[in-house]
């Protein structure tokens, strides 16, 4: 299919599975790239939770790809249709690649609402049912750079029957074919007769729109006809629940279609244990072409990320730092394997006093079962700043972290903001957690480049292969 | 615990007993004497200087440079309120880049959580919240009277039950200053006996006299007179005689600045502006005048004309939470359906980050998805208040403040008939006639 400019250039593959590389040719003119393994920037309606553009840009090294979800956007379709210049401009996003997925990975999605012809998304106003036509109409108003094809992903529940899983694979392939058809139709006349195709009234409206809005160079509104999908790329969705044959069939069939990459769905945290997830991903990865990226949906915990990268995943959604923030916690797991302790975010461990050792021990029990399915529960990769022991702790969240929060504020202040329910707590935690998580991915790539993945795993998971307790 | 805790019978070891004696000793005629003697001691020592840059030749408005320990504040100034040592989701860097030179912290809230000892350990409230510019703290008394139901005012102080653990707590003038000393604010407020502005009769007079006595106790209790400025609060309700008496007495003390208190509490606007203008008539020219709890745009402009320099109000930040954006023509309710497809910024002339990046339609939609929507409006509203005061100052400096007022009113109200009567009258009293 014409227009598939996105290309994954692998520089290193460890043990035939873990992939290091650069996803190139992103964006309308192909000028953007994204290092893999990597993650997308998680947003609510194009806005990183709690952050404005000022506070977002305290973070350096933001992912070049921003993720938005139809569950946020669908209810505003009429607004975007009237706006005409795509979601990126609507949200005031500037130099970023836009990826549009179906569901919000951090929000619960009730099951039982898919049919042969429709899937449902849940926005603030409740459920919205999408047919392929509606789904594609939405994509035309969003104008992302790439998007997840419509999919029936309701098989993550452990009791999904083989029949239901097979149906989900079939439906998802049918949706994909329909989506591709609409996409092709939208592209072909585009090149031939663009001026004639766009009614004059539309141009007028677009120009008027520009006059009463801000700061968009006029060229932008005319360089492509509004609400078409030329140059927009699609990711096919691999389903198959926890049934190996279905996973393989889904991967094989999807790989035959002209998609730019693959979303691995139905493998999210809570749906299965990591051993089974690894098995599924490994099998799927064998069926997928090397040069196309694999985006794993709904997995964000560092231990699971590591295992999934080992199984062949390239991309993740970065909702995990948001979930950590929402429970008033700060990421504090260590990933420093560089011998040079001067590196940002990788300072040597502070020696703990006997008191703190006790606290840390207490925390082990508190954190509880790692295999817990509850995504809202605290993991051992974070510390709970609401804990009373932080009320007079004047250290930064994490010694050596170079983020805005750690450079400017102390644990005691964060504790105070949390116990007084102040909004700044979410802002500062989101900054630190996002920064920490991005640095973790940086360390992961560095480990892959230097064949030190085992060392990184040891550092993140602890010697027993289980995540370490916090040692700040 | 934070404030001095009073058991059913005050324990003799507690320092409140001494304070109570102080309170009695300074009662009555002695008050003025102790005030006079303090004047000598403190004269010239206050860590504040006020340089009058320009005075409006028509109204009582003035533009000053108020030098405070952490930076110089250009007045007239609006001070945003950061109750808990934070400003509604805004970082200190954002606040700084909006041009804010001074903001408020609430002694009552901070004294309760995290408590003065902890804040002192964190190098004061500046260190705790990492704010490099000036801070003003209130006395804590107002919150107590307004927030806590079971408060009782005696000569010793304000007694109340902690809303956190139900313990009886006594806030004396000494304790208030003690806490504010721990917070390390650049401007501290005296503990005053707050009576609702709608109360009349002997209670108002009692409160006025008590506030004078408490002022003297506060002055005496200030451990950092070289680093922290203590402002007196003029009381006297809506009674011109009482206000005048309070002004006469308090201006005998050499405090670094004065606040006009006991207003903005639901009184008639006609009474409000008359008390304000009476106060500024009798306050010394060389000291800053702070009108407490006032923050609506019209009130700000009118009260600058009446001679006030400093203002604070929770309204601009509180109202942002509900999607109410302040604009030169009043306010704009971003959450209203009419803005869903409105692709203009909140105020096309506003230079704030929100208006430069986002449309009303986007903010309208974002309110359904994330709390960042509130932050956007908060930023805009603070920017609106600070920009308004900067334009006011500019017009005073350039000698065209009366003109500014007329333009401002025209923009704010659709027609002359909608100008509030009190504002027209108040402005006329300072020679500004609105056509
Ligand atoms: Zn927030
Ligand atoms: Zn940090
Ligand atoms: Zn603005």
UniProtKB/TrEMBL annotation, chain A:
Zn(2+) binds at residues 401, 403, 406, 432. Non-catalytic subunit of the queuine tRNA-ribosyltransferase (TGT) that catalyzes the base-exchange of a guanine (G) residue with queuine (Q) at position 34 (anticodon wobble position) in tRNAs with GU(N) anticodons (tRNA-Asp, -Asn, -His and -Tyr), resulting in the hypermodified nucleoside queuosine (7-(((4,5-cis-dihydroxy-2-cyclopenten-1-yl)amino)methyl)-7-deazaguanosine). Residues 19-460 form the tRNA-guanine(15) transglycosylase-like domain. It is found in: Cytoplasm; Mitochondrion outer membrane. InterPro entries: QTRTD1, Queuine_tRNA-ribosyltrfase, TGT-like_sf, tRNA_ribo_trans-like. Heterodimer of a catalytic subunit QTRT1 and an accessory subunit QTRT2. Belongs to the queuine tRNA-ribosyltransferase family. QTRT2 subfamily. GO terms for biological process: tRNA modification. This is Queuine tRNA-ribosyltransferase accessory subunit 2. It is a peripheral membrane protein. Residues 343-370 are annotated as: Disordered. Binds 1 zinc ion per subunit.
TrEMBL record, chain B:
GO terms for molecular function: metal ion binding; tRNA-guanosine(34) queuine transglycosylase activity. Keywords: Cytoplasm, Glycosyltransferase, Membrane, Metal-binding, Mitochondrion, Mitochondrion outer membrane, Transferase, tRNA processing, Zinc. It is an enzyme of class 2 (transferase). It is found in: Cytoplasm; Mitochondrion outer membrane. Residues 293-299, 317-321 are annotated as: RNA binding. The active site is at residues 138, 312. Its main location: cytoplasm. Its EC number is 2.4.2.64. Belongs to the queuine tRNA-ribosyltransferase family. This is Queuine tRNA-ribosyltransferase catalytic subunit 1. It comes from Menidia menidia (Atlantic silverside).
